[in-house]
Amino acid sequence: MQAEEFRRHGHDLIDWVADYLQGVEAYPVLPDLQPGDVRRRLPAEPPREPEAMETILKDFRTLILPAVTHWNHPRFFAYFPANQSGPSILGELLSAALGVNAMVWQSCPAATELEEVVMDWLRRMIGLPESFRGVIQDTASTATIVALLCARERATDFATNEHGFYARTAAALRVYCSREAHSSVEKGLKAAGFGREHLVPIAVDNELALDPTDLAQKIAADREQGLTPCAVVATVGTTSSTALDPLVPIADLADRHRLWLHVDAALAGSAAILPEKRAMFDGLERADSFVFNPHKWLFTNFDCSAFFCRDPQTLVRTFAIDPEYLRTAFDSGATNLRDWGLALGRRFRALKLWFVLRSYGVEGLQARLREHLGLAQEFMQWVVADPQFELLAPVPLQTICFRHCPPEVAAAGAEALDRHNAALLQRVNATGQLFMTHTRLRERYCLRLSIGQTETRREHVVAAWRLIRDCAQAR
Amino acid sequence: MQAEEFRRHGHDLIDWVADYLQGVEAYPVLPDLQPGDVRRRLPAEPPREPEAMETILKDFRTLILPAVTHWNHPRFFAYFPANQSGPSILGELLSAALGVNAMVWQSCPAATELEEVVMDWLRRMIGLPESFRGVIQDTASTATIVALLCARERATDFATNEHGFYARTAAALRVYCSREAHSSVEKGLKAAGFGREHLVPIAVDNELALDPTDLAQKIAADREQGLTPCAVVATVGTTSSTALDPLVPIADLADRHRLWLHVDAALAGSAAILPEKRAMFDGLERADSFVFNPHKWLFTNFDCSAFFCRDPQTLVRTFAIDPEYLRTAFDSGATNLRDWGLALGRRFRALKLWFVLRSYGVEGLQARLREHLGLAQEFMQWVVADPQFELLAPVPLQTICFRHCPPEVAAAGAEALDRHNAALLQRVNATGQLFMTHTRLRERYCLRLSIGQTETRREHVVAAWRLIRDCAQAR
Question: Residue B169: how many CB atoms within 10 A of its CB?
């Protein structure tokens, strides 16, 4: 593609993106499709000859766009936000244009050093001590595997990297997390060779937070059996209900038993930039590692997961490789981020984060988060005030777990209520007016509204509540 | 950022990118900097208040750009290409704007199905049988870990996921690869808990390709000791010299001993779209998994690594998790790509690949690769024809390994030659006129010229050869 052609299509696309972001409310949040609907409209064979960009972009608009779930939509309340912003999209554009691979310092000094700088900005914003060093990972799942591998290596004096797990039959390494922790802990444990059965689920309290008494008992029982407690994953803001594991008593136990303490605050971590929410992170300074995702709730394009480690030496020693073809004259004085995680290649992700942090400023980011938090409190109050609905978990952040609970259905038993709410969810989402998802808490099926898209305002949350009530009544 | 502000800055940036791509030759390929030079010019604290996009973009141009290694430069001959193209950058822009997370089908049907379609296009283009299914991973390093985990689970009937490695003391799993294989194999083996000592290095032949006789002997020796041969990683196009491991005899051994055969052709795989190069992939159809990177040499932005698996059931069973909050009504009929690798979240990477494949067409891609291959042959002939230089490896693809070998230095011994060539590399790169890197082959220090940037033409390769010779004579 010649420069002038790039320029022409680039300008067209910028206008399209601006219009899209401005007009995204006009789209159904969730497309009305069945699996295979997209695939069968696309040719099975790649084209032999070049096609005009005009044709490709037309197909994008007619074949792809109608099959997109609009994560940008202000009435996207599903899963978790993957919010973003104009400055972030522009940062991604520049990063794509530069196309660097920041695997070692020399392969793009700007990418490595800007990543160090913006990660240190984030560290200051969330109040982590200076001893923590940050690095961008693609997702919190990957960050959790990285943390588990560091834990494994520290616990075995780096012998597992060298010899594998084979010699440890009698003293299996044990990892603890609450029953509400994210599925990535299980996935990471399997991948790292611990084995799923060595993930010890810890009971939760009334607020769905990890119960430190049960943790203490489980550790003691393992020790008695000759097993080796290795790591604990605490969650600040669980995926289902944003429950808050208590970090101080968990850190006490981690200290006493020399466990690696990894804190997963994938969504909630952004709230640490708010002084009034800092209390939920008390004890975080005693963690060994910490992850939160600016690509969830800090207006930065997916993917951008901020991983902090208190002992970067352990991290680097766990992942370092040193092939001749990657050696440079700067290996002693410079940071080579290839050794800070699993993948060798690295995109220039710091650029979009730098654009966002500067464009919003810390106060601008705080203001948007406070607005989302306030809307969640309002929605919660509507749920509590309506006798037909039931709140199913505390709302410390921006996610509300609730259900429709009319007396005549409740009288038919727990399963009837579950079915009733599953059907309600389907009716709500089928309108295309909003998209929300579900979970289960204490065996009960819950509707789950997660507030945090960049342009979500009070009117969108009001509309959501109205729609949910209308659909509930129209059953 | 308001839509109009996005529009204005977006148009400015498109013009900047078009100018940059057109004028990239004016930049030094490698910046002349020391570690810390970028960091110390940036503030230690994030801004409290919003900053104007104009200020941020000015800082991008004055602080960041001068510290960028220009992977787009037509005289970038280092490492491997991470080439790209206008259509790919436009695809990334759209993908950033949509900001979807394609973790499950429902979270963006278009992203999941377009990925299935374009990966199937790639499969046809490289001549893999229909039984292979493709998925995009971030990097070949990650794809290799994924393959090793599949191998581990198949070999242990999925018991390692469940119980860990603990029970296998007497029958450690063994993995084989040539001494020239990529460092990611070692990294993956460590991460997956096999242990580095269970990676068995296989000897290479005169052309630096894996020696199947040695592989057979190593497998037999392991069996005799009661160890469990588990997987072999064959490389088509090694990182150092693009050596070609012979797939047919390796596949024979893999069959006989029921090893998982993973083929790593991160760079070279693109050449499989050329009928005249297909012979180097003979036997690939017998692999269990295969990876190559369109982000290396197929004009698609980093990251985009194409991973193919012959038995997707094993892949999915290795990685599947099933938390309530990710269940949807479509889980039986649809592909949920979250279960096809380590990370849960996934970007919409198929879009840029679709743009590239259609915009170039298969014939357009073939033409560009053939031009690069031809240039490499020419450069090789210049090296061979010059008595002052020595070719150090065959050139089946686009990488030339060579050294300057003047008689008076050669007379001083092998170490003197190594030092001489290391100094020459430094002199060449210090000009900013080109960037190349080095490796070691059979203990000898080699200069390494890797041809494959999108805009690299004959004139750039001619200029490179002239500069290298000038720097060699000016010592």
Answer: 14
- How high is the pLDDT of residue A168? 66
- B193–A33: do the CB atoms touch at under 8 Å? no
Return d(Cα B343, Cα A295) in angstroms, integer.
14
Nearest residue to B65 via CA among B13, B108, B135: B13
- The CA-based angle B244-B245-B247, given to 5 degrees, is 120
Whether residue A246 contacts residue A210, with contact meaning beta carbons closer than 8 Å, is answered with: yes
Whether A440 and B92 lie within 8 Å, measured CB to CB = no
Mean pLDDT rounded to a whole number for chain B: 96
Chain segment B250-306, per-residue pLDDT in tens = 999 999 999 999 999 999 999 999 999 999 999 999 999 999 999 999 999 999 999
Residue A64 near residue B351 (C-beta atoms within 8 A)? yes
Cα separation, A179 vs B91, in Å, equals: 40
Instruction: For residues A119 and A304, give the distance between their C-alpha atoms in angstroms, rounded to a whole number.
Output: 11
| ipTM of model | 0.97
Fill in the DSSP letter of residue A37. Answer: T
User: Which domains does chain B carry?
Assistant: 1-30+69-84+365-475 (3.90.1150.170), 38-65 (no CATH), 100-347 (3.40.640.10)
Q: What is the pLDDT of residue A333?
A: 85
Q: B140-155 and B312-319 helices cross at what angle (nearest 10)? A: 90
Cα-based distances in Å from B27 to B232, B301, B437: 43, 20, 18
Residue A331 is predicted with a pLDDT of: 87
Contacts of B426 in chain A (CB under 8 A): 329
What percentage of residues in chain B have a pLDDT greater than 70?
Answer: 99
- Residues (pLDDT < 70) of chain B are 167-170, 475
> CA A42 → CA A39, A357, B115, B304, B330, distances in Å?
5, 40, 11, 21, 21
Q: What is the pLDDT of residues B339-382, one digit of tens each?
A: 999 999 999 999 999 999 999 999 999 999 999 999 999 999 99
Could you write out the three-class secondary structure of B315-384?
HHHHHCCCCHHHCCCCCCCCCCHHHHCCCCCCCCCHHHHHHHHHHHHHHHHHHHHHHHHHHHHHHHHHHH
Q: For A42-56, what is each residue's pLDDT tens digit?
A: 999 999 999 999 999
- Half-sphere exposure (Cβ direction) of B357: Cα atoms closer than 13 Å: 25
Question: What is A261-322 written as a DSSP string?
Answer: EEEE-TTGGGGGGSGGGGGGGTTGGG-SEEEE-HHHHSS--SS-EEEEES-HHHHHHHH---
Most distant CA atoms of chain A, gap in Å? 75
Closest-approach residue (CA) in chain A for B22: A3
Q: Shortest Cα distance from B303 to chain A (angstroms)?
A: 7
DSSP string for A185-222: HHHHHHHTTS-GGGEEEE-B-TTS-B-HHHHHHHHHHH
- Closest partner CB to A47 (pick from B197, B329, B361): B361
Sheet of strand A228-235: strand arrangement: A133-137, A305-309, A289-292, A260-264, A228-235, A173-178, A199-202
Residues 6+ apart with CB under 8 A from A374: none
Tokens linked to A441: 């808490």
Tell me if the pTM is above 0.90. yes
- A-chain CB neighbours of B355 within 8 Å are 56
Nearest chain B residue (CA) to A113: B39
Q: Minimal Cα–Cα distance from B65 to chain A, Å?
A: 7
pLDDT tens digits along B262-276:
999 999 999 999 999
- Average pLDDT (A262-284) is 98
Q: How far is B342 from chain A (nearest CA, A)?
A: 7
Q: Which residue bears the tokens 């007379």?
A: B411
Q: Per this entry, what is the length of chain A?
A: 475
B401-426 tens-digit pLDDT: 999 999 999 999 999 999 999 999 99
CA separation, residue B165 to residues A196, A259, A468, B195 (Å): 11, 21, 49, 11
A320 pLDDT exceeds 90? yes
